[in-house]
Amino acid sequence: MEGPYLSTVSATIQAAIAPVFLLAGIGAFLNVMVGRLARIVDRARDIEQLHPRSTGPEHDRHVWELRIIDRRISVINNAIFLCTASALAVCIVVALLFVSRLGNLHVGIWVAVAFIISMLLLMAGLVYFLIEVRISLKAIHIRKELLELDKT
Question: How far is CA 119 from CA 21, 26, 87, 89, 104, in A?
Fold first, then answer.
């Protein structure tokens, strides 16, 4: 039984370089998203500690912010899920490249389909990330009484 030639393996590694760089990029996005999730959770814990002791408008503001935080957590979790699924699809692309080359199989259509799925998942994940950022920006309002506007 004859093994694969070094040139075959080398050519396959060269073909897999672009998807591997894509994996690194997705990893960077995931790092940012997980960081945002951690900050959201930290903020939720801070508000949860203040919530029982608050009354009146302050209590209403805490409830409002906790609802927004709950929504943000759901949206960023979706983004993380979709980007992780995209990374898995890229891994399938790389595996198919090797299986195809080493097994002399003609699975080019499956490689293309896996890559397209990967891009669609990544796009969906980035859309969810954008939605989460927009939600957070809409929620950030400094109360007028804290701004101490000059009344002259």
Answer: 14, 11, 9, 9, 26
Q: Residue written as tokens 């030639």?
A: 5
Of 39, 132, 43, 44, nearest in space to 83 by CA: 132
Taking alpha carbons only, the member of 115, 84, 83 closest to residue 18 is 115
pTM strictly above 0.85: no
CA–CA dist 80, 40 (Å, integer): 14
Kindly report the length of the chain: 152
pLDDT in tens, 31-79: 999 999 999 999 999 999 887 788 888 888 889 999 999 999 999 999 9
> Which positions ≥6 away from 121 have C-beta within 8 Å?
82, 83, 85, 86, 89
DSSP 103: T
Dist. CA 9–CA 109, nearest whole Å: 21
C-alpha distance from residue 18 to each of 8, 21, 22, 107 (Å): 17, 5, 6, 18
